[in-house]
Amino acid sequence: MLLDGWGWVAWGVYLFVMPVGALAVRRATLHSWPAVLRPVTRQPLGRAVLAAVLAAALVLVLFALLSLTGWVEAEGHGVNLRTLFTGVLGPQLLVACWEELTFRGALQPITIRHLGQKAGLMVASALFGLFHLPNILHHEVPAALIPQTVAALILMGAIFGLAALRDGGYLALPIALHFGWNGACFGLEEVFSYRFVGPPWLTGTAAWFPESGLLGAATLMVLAGISRWLTGPRVQSAQAEV
């Protein structure tokens, strides 16, 4: 996040103006507020926890594989669990909730209504990817990697968008996938100081890992498979019986 100088203004816009504005636009366009969460029961709660764990595991496995190839030079430092929870996991849960409420809870239903499901999903996903462009530039991602970084984020938006669609418009699953993925990415930054020495187009850059590399995009495809499995016919049937 942009927290220095005028970044505090951006943070305030992000926390308040963006979600409130998106919900207001949805209310004006669709004449409804989003019903984003089911009543908490063991089945959807357990599935959300599993989704977050699996998403985080994918990022950690990718990092481990890159380490085994010798493409990562990492130096560990002391892990402060309090900082990990308050400085990484807490903020990333907030990020996941706010972005999913904005893009999958408000913007995606609007674009789908006006453009149809496929086109609406792609437009909302593209907006999600482009939304991150200022932060990508702020973190000085190499220019050659910016197009594939944005493309990977658009893919991520489509994965979360499909998860919401297949789950009846509810956001627990995309929030969990988003939180698990981001939590692992930023958790690695908290635990290690690292840089990549492999092919940049393949590994990406530590400034925006893992979406800046093609291996990160491939890992997102695995995440798409996990999301589809979590919203498969058996799961939907079990939900209908609850």
Structural overview:
The chain is mainly α. The protein has one domain (7-241). Helix content is 74%, strand content 4%. The protein is built from 10 helices and 2 strands. It has helices at residues 7-30, 42-68, 81-115, 117-131, 133-138, 146-166, 172-191, 200-203, 214-230, 233-241; strands at residues 72-76, 192-196. It has a two-stranded antiparallel ribbon with strand order 1-2. Helix 1 (7-30) packs parallel to helix 3 (81-115), helix 2 packs antiparallel against helix 9 and helix 3 (81-115) packs antiparallel against helix 7. The N and C termini lie far apart (39 Å). The model is unreliable at 234-242 (pLDDT under 50).
Show the helix and strand layout.
Layout: H1 7-30, H2 42-68, E1 72-76, H3 81-115, H4 117-131, H5 133-138, H6 146-166, H7 172-191, E2 192-196, H8 200-203, H9 214-230, H10 233-241
Antiparallel strand pairs: 1-2
Distance between the termini: 39 Å
How are the strands ordered across the major sheet? 1-2
The share of residues in helices is: over 70%
Strands, total number: 2
Number of separate domains: 1
Specify the structural class: mainly alpha
Unreliable spans? 234-242
Shape: globular
Please give the count of helices: 10
Give the overall average pLDDT. Answer: 90
How does the major sheet shape up? 2 strands, antiparallel
Mind telling me the C-alpha Rg? Answer: 18 Å
Order of helices and strands: HHEHHHHHEHHH
Strand content: under 5%
